[in-house]
Write a structure and sequence with these properties.
52% of the residues lie in helices and 15% in strands. It contains 25 helices and 19 strands.
Length: 663
């Protein structure tokens, strides 16, 4: 079985996350666009008779201006900051891209025990001797000794200082049975199996005889029983008895209890410890209360347009009862499928079954869980899967996002997963989805911010060639903006907290692009040209202040030229400082968000100002970036252009909100 699970785990392979696919697409798109424009304008320069070396510098400038060099490091740092926030909310991220993938999940396949429930088992009720008993009842002195023996001794617990450790269900049974003398010397165990859904232990005495104790899923154990016990009286397990136990099982399960059947049989000398011909002792119903916060978490999933599907090994009736209790199931007639039914379905039939508005999977094995994941993915869903056992590893690997339990999970499950829940709460999964959605929105914010400065970096080169003016911005100054002044402010946008309404929107469509037409239009056709207007105006303001006339050439080291390019650089940086605030949300006004809510913004602004001052007012900054100190009136001239950008963008947002109040 370990080998089979290992094969399933290895055969799933690694899948590319949606963010990785989008970043790859954006990188190729930007590279093609930059190279295309560079080659086009190089040929244009050659056609109008530019010097080859001047034309080559022009083409390189076009390429550099169109490549957002800070994009990839900013994405990485944004994801890293998000992992820190998620860790504070008890979700440990093992792979960086998983942060954003969590945000675009459309379906959550969740376990029941330990995720929706507390994994604190306690016996609530038991059925033996033809009637129901509450757990608070004392064990009758001489009645049901075999049921009590199975509850006490049929387990795989480990003991330290007399205290058990292991499966919470077995601990609950051991505690429920209470103290009783050990009558047998156990010789072996028939371990639990996901297909058999039962386990047994057996003893051997000196004469070779012994006893076998068995517990497991009622439908699997009852099929092996030929008799049943009423106290110490053995009765035939006929159709009437089978029906009574079946009804008792349904009654217990309908109240959300996990039901186990307990059976035993004596072993004759030399008899193999087989599980056939058992005597049914009774049924035990164990309660595992839902987590206190799970109802609210499931409600948030419904509001956010997320589909939550329970996949459990429990009985269908138990799963349905718990699903209703936590508000996972709201309709009167949800679809309930067992693992056996899934096994018999074709891939197309399973996909059709998943069209049901509400569905629960019960008595599911590891391979069947993986089939459900594959069927959902074939329907275009982005699937998050929870798991804690070794047998969950294949589904965790196959899923778009695998989520392992940190408290109750195995090492194998944690290694196969992308995210580990440190508290095993379903609510933590919802918090992780909220953070993931925020990451995607933040990436779009700082992409808008970064791409905006491409236009004021590109326009100077076009003006240089088309209008034969001195080059307003050098390549090294472009890099100073892209890899210097823009870097920390972009990271600050990547550290924005989730907006209050982010979990009130449905998941974004799988085909939605990171670089959408609306984003490109906002950056390249609106914000960018406004920045370029201020940059070029500041450049000519300085030149005209020195008495420059159109057609006059300037040497690269001319103080007038150095100050003019410095003014162009400074105007871009000032506009980007205002752009930082208007990019905090594509629709809501900048004053909607408190400044101190994101302390990274203050650090970004401070770094932007400090770098600009170093570039303009230090000797080594002047030498490295080809700049010169600027008088105060140049700053005063450029500032209204930056403020105009902010006012124009807020006016655009206002028009959008007015036209689409619910957008």
């Amino acid at each position: 079985m370990f080998g089979h699970i290992a094969h399933l785990t290895q055969s799933t392979g690694d899948t590319e996350s949606p963010l990785q696919a989008e970043i790859r697409r954006v990188s190729r798109l930007v590279a093609m666009m930059a190279l295309g424009l560079g080659v086009t304008f190089f040929l244009l320069g050659q056609a109008i008779g530019l010097n080859f070396w001047v034309n080559l510098m022009f083409a390189i400038g076009i390429i550099v201006a169109n490549v957002p060099e800070g994009l990839l490091p900013t994405v990485t740092l944004s994801l890293a900051l998000a992992t820190q926030r998620m860790a504070r909310r008890n979700a440990l991220v093992r792979h960086l891209p998983a942060v954003e993938t969590m945000g675009c999940a459309t379906v959550i396949l969740t376990d029941k025990t330990g995720t929706l429930t507390q994994n604190r088992m306690a016996v609530r009720e038991w059925y033996a001797g033809g009637r129901h008993h509450l757990a608070a009842e004392r064990w009758p002195a001489a009645r049901e000794p075999h049921l009590r023996a199975v509850a006490r001794f049929c387990h795989s617990l480990k003991f330290s200082d007399g205290q058990p450790s292991g499966d919470p269900m077995e601990i609950a049974l051991w505690q429920f049975a209470g103290e009783m003398p050990m009558q047998w010397q156990f010789a072996g165990e028939i371990a639990f199996d996901a297909e058999r859904r039962r386990m047994s232990v057996y003893s051997r005495e000196a004469d070779g005889s012994g006893v076998l104790l068995c517990k497991g899923a009622p439908e699997n154990v009852l099929a092996l029983c030929t008799t049943w016990l009423e106290g110490n009286t053995v009765r035939p397990f006929d159709s009437d008895a089978c029906e009574r136990f079946r009804l008792a099982h349904e009654d217990l399960a309908s109240r959300g209890l996990r039901v186990l059947a307990c059976a035993w049989k004596p072993l004759a000398a030399g008899e193999a410890p087989g599980e056939e011909g058992l005597a049914l002792c009774g049924l035990i119903g164990l309660e595992d209360p839902p987590r206190p916060d799970v109802h609210a978490a499931v409600g948030r999933c419904h509001t956010a347009g997320l589909r939550v599907i329970m996949v459990t090994g429990d009985h269908p009736t138990t799963a349905l009862a718990v699903g209703r209790e936590v508000d996972l199931i709201r309709s009167a007639t949800p679809r309930v499928l067992t693992g056996d039914a899934v096994r018999q379905m074709s891939a197309a039939e399973l996909q059709i079954a998943l069209e049901a508005p509400e569905i629960i999977f019960a008595r599911v094995s590891a391979e069947q869980k993986m089939l459900i994941v594959q069927a959902l993915q074939a329907k275009g869903e982005i699937v998050a899967v929870t798991g804690d056992g070794v047998n969950d590893a294949p589904a965790l690997r196959m899923a778009d996002i695998g989520i392992a339990m940190g408290l109750s999970g195995t090492d194998v499950a944690r290694e196969a997963a992308d995210i580990v829940l440190l508290d095993d709460h379903f609510g933590t999964i919802v918090n992780a989805i909220e953070e993931g959605r925020a990451v995607y929105e933040n990436i779009r914010k700082f992409i808008t911010y970064i791409l905006t400065s491409n236009i004021p970096e590109l326009i100077p080169y076009l003006a240089f060639v088309l209008f034969r003016i001195p080059l307003p911005l050098t390549v090294i100054q472009i890099l100073a903006v892209d890899l210097g002044t823009d870097m920390l402010p972009a990271i600050a946008l990547g550290a924005e907290k989730p907006s209050p309404d982010i979990m009130q929107c449905p998941p974004r469509p799988r085909g939605e692009r990171l670089l959408s037409g609306a984003l490109l239009a906002r950056a390249y056709l609106f914000l960018g040209p406004l920045e370029a207007l201020g940059a070029m105006a500041s450049f000519f303001f300085v030149l005209h202040g020195f008495g420059w006339q159109y057609g006059e050439t300037l040497a690269l080291g001319d103080p007038r030229y150095l100050q003019a390019t410095s003014a162009c650089l400074m105007a871009i940086v000032l506009a980007q400082m205002v752009n930082l605030f208007v990019c905090r949300h594509p629709r809501l006004p900048a004053w909607h968000f408190p400044l101190l809510e994101n302390r990274w913004l203050l650090a970004g602004l401070a770094s932007e100002v400090a770098l600009l001052l170093v570039i303009l007012y230090t000797p080594w900054g002047n030498r490295l970036f080809g700049t010169a100190p600027l008088p105060a009136e140049v700053f005063l001239y450029a500032m209204p252009f930056a403020l105009f950008l902010g006012l124009a963008e807020e006016a655009r947002k206002w028009l959008i909100r007015r036209g689409h109040p619910n957008a």
